[in-house]
């Protein structure tokens, strides 16, 4: 097949497989791998030149490492230093050592066992981050720890890729003088890259940006990445190391975000091609010929990694549930293992059969991860049904003037303002995870369900003057409002509503003081937009105030018919017409001119 035909086949496979696998919750990476397996020599045999495609697609890994380098600002690394270098370093070291020692005990050479151990200790950054984002767990304790571990793994790949050529068995042992010369040459090139990135590349980008030729800026970005990568290859180092260094050197530049946006599409397509090529190279015949060996290795690696992650999580202060979630998130192999094993085979460090076996193990472990997470969640839910629940905290606040129910973003800001005026308050939240998290930052908060009458009595709701209802979940918010209204009618409720429908439900109960979650902030931005378009600040604020007053009237009118969808839609259309009429006669005076001049 021609190059053009191959490209059409790859694009077609990606367009079909990736959306399908994302739809069923298995992720894009697995979609690429399965598509490659179907296209390659072990599938339909549509594509056979796997090695050539694999070498070309490694450009995707090069671009990925450049983008990782762009993200590694020193300030960000310092904030994440414990999760990255502490937990992440321990995970790679312990897991890699255990797997490597096992491999050595089974008869592998020391260098081969070490590469296999470190490669299998890595997890899939793309896979895990996607799953955590879909489950809304990126800001959880185990989510942040998982991110730190993945970041360290990405960093650990860099020196590994640089060292692999030095372990090569292809050319014999180099002479001492030759080794010294090669080392000096490598150091010189590294210093040249650092100096060029600081004193040459930025002025070049500045000059190109001044021409406003966006396509040339993109070409220059690609040239910097590929040029640095090729320079590293000339001195016996890896392309990936060069791309990573180029990214780090530009991480603090004013062009970081534009470079990231320009490179991202190329990286995405080439990484997809890389995964397809890996899928094509996966030796499916091994699974058919030795299914018990493959399955045993997959389950063994995943169980070992999960056990290490759980122990390390507990050792670094994670609650049992958080450590368990961390172990379930990262037991699979990662995309960089494909790179390491492929390069190790090319350098003669691993034989082809072992490489094929490890690639199959990593691929199947990635395929099993969503199933493992789903099974783990099901087991935990079943266990929790029969397990005793954590008891609510005993409340020792005797005279709170304010009770805050819900200690998310909204409730925390209210509490901070009250604290500045030394106004006593009691804060409650029904999420044990949230309570444990905010307590680490010195906040005083109680674990408890504010819809429970006994808890409200313990919180002395009968003595408080104001009840701030800041619960995120709509059903829990409405239930809490009902209990407070029924049993503590003298306390005033100030509520946060997520949207109009939530507001209507609270108004049904009798809550009259409420704010929709993003209403006021949206109005503030709208006012600034009007000012940015040239409207005077006084006119912009008057426009926003008129809109706010009209919208609140519409909210009250809509409440009367919100249970009748037909009438509610009609009321919304009528309100839109009224709003147009309200501003129809207004004229916006251009900046710097008075009203009379504008009228003329």
TrEMBL record:
- List the keywords (alphabetical): Antiport, Ion transport, Membrane, Potassium, Potassium transport, Transmembrane, Transmembrane helix, Transport
Q: Does the keyword Membrane apply?
A: yes
Report the residue ranges that make up the RCK N-terminal domain in this protein.
Answer: 399-515
State if Zinc is listed as a keyword. Answer: no
Q: Which Pfam families match?
A: Na_H_Exchanger, TrkA_N
What topology does it adopt in the membrane?
Multi-pass membrane protein
Q: Which InterPro entries does this entry report, sorted A to Z?
A: Cation/H_exchanger_TM, K/H_exchanger, Na+/solute_symporter_sf, NAD(P)-bd_dom_sf, RCK_N
**Compartments it resides in:** Membrane
Gene3D superfamilies per record: 1.20.1530.20, NAD(P)-binding Rossmann-like Domain (3.40.50.720)
* Transmembrane domains' residue ranges: 7-33, 53-72, 84-106, 112-133, 145-167, 179-201, 213-233, 268-286, 292-313, 325-345, 357-380
Family that this chain belongs to: Belongs to the monovalent cation:proton antiporter 2 (CPA2) transporter (TC 2.A.37) family.
Annotated NCBIfam families:
2a37
Name of the protein in its database record: Monovalent cation:proton antiporter-2 (CPA2) family protein
The scientific name of the source species is Sorangium atrum
Give the taxonomic lineage as stored in the record.
Answer: Bacteria, Pseudomonadati, Myxococcota, Polyangia, Polyangiales
């Amino acid at each position: 097949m021609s190059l053009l035909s191959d490209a059409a086949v790859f694009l077609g496979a990606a367009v079909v497989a990736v959306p399908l696998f994302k739809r069923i919750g298995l992720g894009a990476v697995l979609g690429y791998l399965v598509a490659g397996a179907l296209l390659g020599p072990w599938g339909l045999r549509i594509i056979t030149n796997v090695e050539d495609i694999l070498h070309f697609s490694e450009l995707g890994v090069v671009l990925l490492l450049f983008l990782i380098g762009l993200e590694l600002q020193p300030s960000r690394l310092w904030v994440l230093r414990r999760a990255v270098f502490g937990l992440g370093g321990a995970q790679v070291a312990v897991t890699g050592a255990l797997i490597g020692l096992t491999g050595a005990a089974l008869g592998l050479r020391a260098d081969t066992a070490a590469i296999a151990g470190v490669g299998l200790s890595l997890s899939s950054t793309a896979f895990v981050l996607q799953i955590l984002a879909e489950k809304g767990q990126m800001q959880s304790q185990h989510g942040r720890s998982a991110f730190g571990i993945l970041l360290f793994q990405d960093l650990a790949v860099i020196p590994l890729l640089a060292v692999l050529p030095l372990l090569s068995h292809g050319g014999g042992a180099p002479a001492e003088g030759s080794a010294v010369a090669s080392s000096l040459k490598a150091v010189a090139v590294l210093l040249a890259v650092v100096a060029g990135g600081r004193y040459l590349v930025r002025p070049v980008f500045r000059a190109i940006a001044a021409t406003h030729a966006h396509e040339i800026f993109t070409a220059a970005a690609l040239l910097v990445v590929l040029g640095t990568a090729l320079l590293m290859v000339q001195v016996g180092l890896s392309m990936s190391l060069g791309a990573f260094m180029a990214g780090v050197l530009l991480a603090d530049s004013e062009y970081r975000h534009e470079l990231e946006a320009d490179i991202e599409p190329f990286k995405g397509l080439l990484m997809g091609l890389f995964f397809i090529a890996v899928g094509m190279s996966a030796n499916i015949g091994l699974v058919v010929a030795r299914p018990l060996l493959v399955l045993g290795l997959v389950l063994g690696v995943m169980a070992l990694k999960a056990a290490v992650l759980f122990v390390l999580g507990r050792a670094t202060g994670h609650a049992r549930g958080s450590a368990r979630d961390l172990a379930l998130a990262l037991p699979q192999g990662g995309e960089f293992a494909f790179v390491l094993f492929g390069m190790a085979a090319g350098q003669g460090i691993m034989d082809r059969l072992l490489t094929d076996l490890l690639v199959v193990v990593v691929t199947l472990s990635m395929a099993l991860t969503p199933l493992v997470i789903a099974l783990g969640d099901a087991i935990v839910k079943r266990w929790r049904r029969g397990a005793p629940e954590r008891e609510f905290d005993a409340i020792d606040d005797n005279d709170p003037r304010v009770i805050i129910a819900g200690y998310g973003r909204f409730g925390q800001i209210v509490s901070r303002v009250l604290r500045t005026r030394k106004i006593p308050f009691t804060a409650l939240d029904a999420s044990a995870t949230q309570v444990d998290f905010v307590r680490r930052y010195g906040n005083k908060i109680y674990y408890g369900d504010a819809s429970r009458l006994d808890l409200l009595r313990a919180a002395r709701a009968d003595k408080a003057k104001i009840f701030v209802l800041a619960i995120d979940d709509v059903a829990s918010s409405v239930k809490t409002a009902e209990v407070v209204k029924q049993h503590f009618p003298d306390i005033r409720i100030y509520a946060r509503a997520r949207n109009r429908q939530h507001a209507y439900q609270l108004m049904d109960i009798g809550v009259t003081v409420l704010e929709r979650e993003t209403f006021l902030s949206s109005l503030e931005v709208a006012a600034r937009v009007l000012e940015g378009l040239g409207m005077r600040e006084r006119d912009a604020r008057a426009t926003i105030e008129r809109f706010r007053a009209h919208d609140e009237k519409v909210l009250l009118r809509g409440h009367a018919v919100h249970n009748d969808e037909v009438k509610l839609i009609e009321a919304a259309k009528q309100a839109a017409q009224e709003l147009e009429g309200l501003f129809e006669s207004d004229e916006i005076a251009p900046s710097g001119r008075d009203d009379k001049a504008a009228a003329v």
